[in-house]
């Protein structure tokens, strides 16, 4: 508690280098970590406390306490304590095992060795002994021990390279650099030992990308940011050594701050005592009734036994393993399997109504290829025939030959020879265009052992543009802290790098300011056309109009584009501006705002050069998956940061948008009034004049309106789509407009939101979650999708080109969007189907088992006497009937996986929750009540005044109990055999084996031997042998079984024959197919004629801008060759018409085959 109070008082952290005595007065945490929850002494009390915080365990503990009171309970305590102890013990063993591995991991980490500078000497110290303020030496490929301020490194200018996969999942290297004043310390131990700088910085927090502080040393202050800090969890790469000063240690490091609170914290709770008063001598009728009430609470608690919770978790775990083991969801090209990262959401996969999908990297491949460009009003990249008519690029076309260029990328292809001709003719605009591509970027260049030039790219877009410039003769060679060197048509040219104006999501552009060898200062800029066109000089009006047309044409082919512009700067003006930029960088308040203002000031009056267009193809199987999910009545909303035209084009390419749609509503209002008016008009067009939409507040009365909306959705004829821009969406999400948006969007088949921010993605998901009472799923591949993934009921991450942030935040992950079809239509539907059947059967058998006590109460004066042997009550749910219902819940399937995919309409019962709802539960209860009546009254009537074969009276209580128990076990076993749709070897063993186990345990517990050992616990000595040798007893059991099962068999036969469901028809067709086994034939595939729509996009992530601005951006050593520009071949297969026809034909054939004899 003291530590917590101390941390609350800490408003800033002050650390002095090489001075442990000074730092110890602040009582900073040491570098020892504790991720474990228990130790030997605290395990039992803390674990029990945690387990009994769960409602189910607390409920059964209360029952156990009541059973310990002899005045109340007619059942002995072991009937509850055996299953309770079993559950608690299994959970405790699991928790202990997990914590043992945490202890083991903690010890392994805490005992790692690090070189620490102590008393002017480098000494090996365990990580747990490292203190705040210590100076540590790290070597290549070592883990970073704590959050360090980088002081110096083996690389020039204090650079070092770190891998942050443990922090953010990204495997690409990050660059960190030291202050120039500390990088001079180098590896000089004496100078490092004399370093006594004081760091004043922020308090420990979990922000991985932010750090603010100031280093005071030698009467000067230096500002610190995240680029100067190396975080614990990183690995030093491609750097021989570096020195760092510990700022945060142990639990204060950002890695541990992000790991959550795994250490159990005690909270003071209220204590309670229960006093029970009774008098053995006198009991009033009221008090007796009170005690009897609690007695029947105990007896009837088996309606919902503790084994239900255990069984549900086991079934969910099995379903998760099926997802992990599915070879059809394994992406062999990159060896990435599907992974279920949770076990609690499998059933909800079978109830999805809305899918929210990112576009780039999710629907598309996010592997970019330079295809087209517009330079000074002329398009390059098109292919023309002899009549100068534009033609399609085919395999017969000869690409531009780049083999003569030794530095060219061999995989790059370009088919328009006119661009090479313009370069050779010396067109100044073309040269300036390619020069800009070679200078304005964040790419890092390296040479591998073979002397080949390798580019380390931070975004696929940049890699495509720099590679294109490289192949056309403008080769980015290297960069130093102050220069960028490129090879222009064989001549090395070095440009002085004066400033780097970094990209971010607000600016949507990036710029560099360089001085060429002639002394001219130029600003080169590339960015989104919506932003860059506003910065152009008025003299660009004609070229602007022409380039805009070209952009629309590029977008018609689904290409992602950037606008390209430059500006000549005056030397005097630049010096004044640069001085203001230095002042802004040194500011402690409003630093970012001041810098952004200066960027805006210099990025104006630009001269337009042209535009680039790169291709991002669809992933394999996207069209088929989207079509199949649409047929399953799942609505897909695309939430993308790309521009409207590109998103629309991808919509047409994916078949989410079609030319056959009745209308496509585009919402592009600039304020709330315009957006509301556009939504109102769209709804009028959609619904006509049948409804009054003056207000459109769809969620004022949620329940009634939801019912109304479902009716309206069924009456909507035709397909509609909604397209809305990010700025319009911001207004539409306001409280008085969002209801109009929601109502319109939910009536449309397709919704595409363009230019949306990560926050807006999450807001759209939350809107549907809150008001539609529907299960939602979000799928994405990048860091900008994390908020959307976390907001939806189920999050799916794709292991793509943008790191693993989305995967780490998701509930399920796989490599390709097409696997979503199998995840939902097969695994999701099966999980929902199995869980519903499990619950229906479980409640049925427990009502049948428990209500017999209630009927018995009428004949025992409601004395709370149990009708069964107490051991039978204990073992019924955990031994006699547990395995068969688990087998059904894990393995059962109504139709095969292929038929589940071929007939997506099978998914609809899950969306409507038809398989387990109040009506189904009520039917299960009635079924259980009927079975309990048969189980009790048929043996009761048969035993009434009946003599055995030996002439003796057999109607004793113990024989009656054995007959009923045996009948119950046989009836529920036969019932689950009837309920099982898919038989496996395990089902047979579990069902018939459970009956065998029952008889073996029964005869054992009724034997003389066990009675002699425990005479008080096993009073039914010899009863099983005596009762079950009587023929009349077996006739009673047979009559009870037939009377219980036959009505169910008759009802199901009539229902399947007269009112078959779609799954019934498919199952019948499956069986007929197995007998016939006709040769399978495939329909020929036809190509879909794609409708072209204009599209435009800009995709870039904030990169190394601050690093390049500081001038510490130069790699000195060459890392192993890597390339982020691997191409993935993609063959587009369009089969929408075939799938729709196939589905229709299949359903028709199912209907026609209803009369097939099985």
Describe this structure in words.
44% of the residues lie in helices and 16% in strands. It is an alpha+beta fold. The strands form seven sheets. The chain has a nine-stranded mixed beta sheet with strand order 14-35-34-33-15-29-32-31-30, with helices on both faces. Strands 17-16-28-27-26-25-24-23-22 form a nine-stranded antiparallel beta sheet, sandwiched between helices. A six-stranded antiparallel beta sheet has the order 3-2-4-13-5-11. A hairpin with a 5-residue loop joins strand 25 and strand 26 (521-527). Helix 3 crosses helix 5 (78-110), helix 4 (55-67) crosses helix 5 and helix 34 packs antiparallel against helix 35 (985-1005).
Properties at a glance:
1158 residues, alpha+beta, nine-stranded antiparallel beta sheet, disordered N terminus
Which helices and strands occur, and which strands form pairs?
Layout: H1 2-9, E1 13-16, H2 20-24, H3 43-51, H4 55-67, H5 78-110, E2 113-118, E3 121-126, E4 135-139, E5 147-153, E6 159-163, H6 165-168, E7 173-177, H7 180-183, H8 189-193, E8 198-201, E9 213-217, E10 220-224, E11 229-230, E12 235-237, E13 241-248, H9 254-257, H10 285-299, H11 306-325, E14 339-340, E15 352-357, E16 369-375, E17 378-380, E18 383-384, E19 390-391, H12 418-424, H13 428-439, E20 444-447, E21 453-456, H14 460-471, E22 474-479, E23 483-488, E24 491-501, E25 509-515, E26 521-527, H15 529-532, H16 541-555, E27 559-569, H17 571-586, H18 591-602, E28 607-615, H19 622-631, E29 635-639, H20 644-653, E30 663-667, H21 672-687, H22 702-715, E31 720-724, H23 726-732, H24 738-747, E32 750-753, H25 758-772, E33 775-780, H26 786-791, E34 794-798, H27 805-808, E35 812-814, H28 819-857, H29 870-880, H30 882-891, H31 897-902, H32 908-911, H33 918-943, H34 957-979, H35 985-1005, H36 1008-1013, H37 1023-1027, H38 1031-1058, H39 1062-1076, H40 1105-1110, H41 1136-1152
Parallel strand pairs: 15-29, 15-33, 29-32, 30-31, 31-32, 33-34, 34-35
Antiparallel strand pairs: 1-8, 2-3, 2-4, 4-13, 5-11, 5-13, 6-7, 6-12, 8-9, 9-10, 14-35, 16-17, 16-28, 18-19, 20-21, 22-23, 23-24, 24-25, 25-26, 26-27, 27-28
Helix pairs in contact: 3-5, 4-5, 5-29, 11-28, 11-30, 13-14, 17-18, 19-28, 21-24, 28-30, 28-33, 28-34, 30-35, 33-34, 33-38, 34-35, 34-38, 39-41
């Amino acid at each position: 508690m003291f530590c917590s109070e101390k941390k609350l008082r800490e408003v800033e952290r002050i650390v002095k280098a090489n001075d442990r005595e000074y730092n110890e007065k602040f009582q900073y945490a040491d570098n020892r970590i504790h991720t474990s929850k228990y130790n030997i002494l605290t395990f039992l009390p803390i674990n029990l406390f945690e387990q009994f915080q769960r409602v189910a365990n607390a409920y059964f503990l209360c029952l156990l306490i009541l059973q310990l009171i002899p005045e109340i309970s007619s059942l002995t305590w072991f009937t509850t304590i055996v299953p309770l102890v079993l559950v608690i013990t299994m959970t405790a063993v699991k928790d202990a095992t997990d914590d043992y591995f945490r202890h083991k991991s903690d010890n392994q980490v805490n005992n790692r060795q690090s070189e620490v500078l102590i008393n002017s000497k480098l000494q090996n110290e365990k990580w747990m002994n490292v203190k705040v303020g210590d100076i540590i030496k790290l070597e290549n490929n070592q883990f970073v021990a704590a959050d360090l301020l980088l002081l110096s490194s083996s690389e020039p200018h204090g650079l070092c390279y770190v891998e942050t996969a443990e922090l953010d999942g990204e495997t690409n290297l990050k660059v960190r650099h030291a202050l120039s004043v500390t990088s001079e310390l180098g590896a000089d131990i004496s100078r490092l030992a004399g370093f006594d700088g004081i760091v004043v910085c922020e308090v420990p927090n979990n922000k991985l990308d932010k750090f603010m502080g100031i280093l005071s040393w030698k009467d000067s202050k230096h500002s610190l940011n995240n680029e100067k800090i190396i975080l614990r969890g990183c690995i030093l790469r491609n750097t021989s050594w570096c020195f760092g000063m510990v700022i945060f240690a142990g639990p204060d490091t950002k890695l541990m701050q992000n790991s959550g609170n795994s250490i159990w914290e005690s909270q003071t709770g209220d204590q309670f005592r229960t006093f029970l008063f009774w008098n053995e001598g006198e009991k009033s009728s009221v008090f007796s009734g009170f005690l009897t009430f609690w007695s029947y609470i105990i007896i009837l608690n088996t309606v919902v036994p503790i084994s239900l919770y255990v069984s549900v978790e086991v079934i969910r775990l099995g379903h998760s393993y099926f997802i992990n083991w599915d070879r059809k969801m394994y992406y062999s090209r990159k060896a990435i399997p599907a992974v279920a990262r949770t076990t609690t959401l499998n059933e909800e996969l079978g109830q999805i109504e809305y899918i929210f999908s990112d576009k780039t990297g999710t629907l598309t491949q996010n592997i970019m290829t330079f295809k087209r460009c517009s330079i000074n009003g002329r398009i390059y990249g098109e292919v023309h025939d002899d009549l100068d008519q534009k033609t399609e690029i085919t395999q017969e076309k000869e690409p531009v030959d780049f083999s003569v260029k030794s530095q060219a990328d061999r995989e790059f292809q370009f088919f328009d020879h006119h661009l090479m001709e313009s370069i050779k003719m010396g067109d100044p605009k073309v040269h300036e265009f390619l020069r800009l591509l070679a200078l304005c970027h964040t790419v890092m260049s390296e040479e591998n052992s073979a002397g080949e030039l390798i580019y380390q790219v931070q975004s696929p877009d940049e890699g495509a543009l720099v590679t294109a410039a490289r192949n056309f003769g403008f080769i980015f060679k290297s960069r130093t802290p102050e220069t960028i060197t490129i090879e222009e048509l064989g001549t090395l040219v070095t440009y002085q790098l004066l400033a780097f104006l970094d990209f971010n999501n607000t600016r949507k552009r990036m710029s560099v300011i360089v001085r060429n060898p002639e002394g001219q200062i130029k600003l080169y800029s590339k960015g989104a056309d919506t932003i860059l066109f506003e910065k152009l000089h008025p003299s660009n009006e004609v070229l602007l109009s022409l380039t805009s047309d070209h952009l629309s044409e590029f977008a018609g082919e689904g290409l992602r584009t950037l606008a390209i512009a430059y500006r000549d700067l005056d030397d005097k003006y630049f010096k004044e501006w640069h001085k203001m930029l230095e002042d802004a960088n040194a500011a402690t308040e409003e630093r970012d705002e001041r810098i952004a203002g200066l960027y805006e000031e210099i990025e104006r009056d630009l001269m337009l050069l042209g535009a680039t267009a790169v291709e991002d193809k669809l992933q394999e199987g996207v069209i088929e998956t989207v079509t199949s999910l649409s047929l399953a009545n799942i609505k897909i909303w695309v939430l993308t940061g790309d521009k409207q035209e590109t998103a629309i084009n991808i919509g047409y390419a994916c078949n989410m948008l079609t030319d056959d749609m009745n209308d496509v509503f585009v919402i592009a209002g600039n304020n709330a009034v315009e957006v509301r008016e556009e939504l109102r008009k769209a709804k009028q067009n959609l619904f006509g004049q049948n409804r009054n939409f003056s207000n459109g507040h769809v969620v004022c009365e949620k329940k009634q309106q939801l019912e109304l909306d479902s009716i309206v959705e069924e009456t909507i004829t035709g397909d509609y789509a909604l397209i809305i821009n990010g700025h319009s969406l911001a207004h539409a999400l306001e409280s008085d407009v969002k209801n109009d948006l929601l109502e319109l969007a939910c009536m449309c088949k397709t919704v595409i939101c363009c230019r949306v921010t990560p926050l807006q993605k999450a807001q759209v998901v939350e809107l549907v979650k809150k008001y539609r009472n529907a299960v939602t799923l979000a799928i994405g591949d990048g860091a900008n999708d994390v908020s959307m993934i976390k907001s939806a009921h189920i999050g799916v991450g794709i292991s793509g080109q943008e790191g693993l942030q989305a995967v780490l935040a998701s509930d399920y992950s796989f490599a390709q969007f097409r696997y979503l079809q199998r995840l939902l239509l097969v695994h999701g539907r099966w999980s929902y189907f199995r869980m519903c059947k499990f619950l229906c059967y479980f409640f049925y058998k427990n009502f049948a088992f428990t209500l017999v006590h209630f009927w018995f109460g009428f004949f025992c004066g409601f004395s709370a006497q149990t009708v069964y042997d107490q051991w039978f009550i204990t073992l019924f749910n955990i031994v006699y009937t547990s395995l068969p219902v688990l087998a059904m819940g894990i393995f059962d399937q109504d139709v095969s996986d292929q038929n589940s995919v071929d007939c997506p309409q099978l998914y609809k019962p899950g969306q409507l929750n038809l398989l387990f709802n109040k009506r189904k539960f009520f039917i299960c209860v009635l079924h259980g009540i009927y079975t309990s009546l048969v189980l009790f009254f048929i043996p009761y009537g048969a035993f009434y005044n009946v003599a055995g074969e030996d002439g003796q009276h057999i109607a004793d209580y113990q024989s009656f109990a054995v007959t009923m128990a045996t009948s119950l076990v046989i009836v529920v076993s036969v019932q689950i055999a009837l309920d099982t749709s898919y038989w496996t070897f395990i089902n047979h063993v579990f069902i018939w084996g459970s009956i065998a186990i029952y008889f073996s345990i029964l005869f054992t517990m009724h034997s003389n031997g066990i009675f002699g050992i425990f005479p008080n616990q096993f009073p039914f000595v010899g009863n099983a042998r005596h009762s079950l040798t009587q023929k009349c007893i077996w006739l009673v059991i047979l009559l009870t079984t037939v009377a219980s099962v036959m009505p169910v068999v008759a009802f199901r036969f009539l229902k399947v024959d007269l009112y078959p469901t779609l799954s019934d028809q498919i199952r019948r067709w499956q069986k007929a197919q197995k007998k016939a086994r006709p040769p399978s034939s495939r329909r020929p595939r036809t190509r879909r004629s794609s409708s072209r729509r204009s599209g435009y996009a800009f995709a870039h992530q904030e990169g190394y801008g601050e690093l390049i601005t500081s001038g510490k951006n130069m790699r000195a050593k060459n890392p192993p060759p890597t390339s982020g520009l691997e191409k993935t071949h993609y063959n587009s297969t369009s089969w929408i018409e075939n799938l729709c026809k196939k589905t229709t034909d299949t359903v028709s054939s199912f209907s026609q085959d209803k009369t097939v004899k099985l």
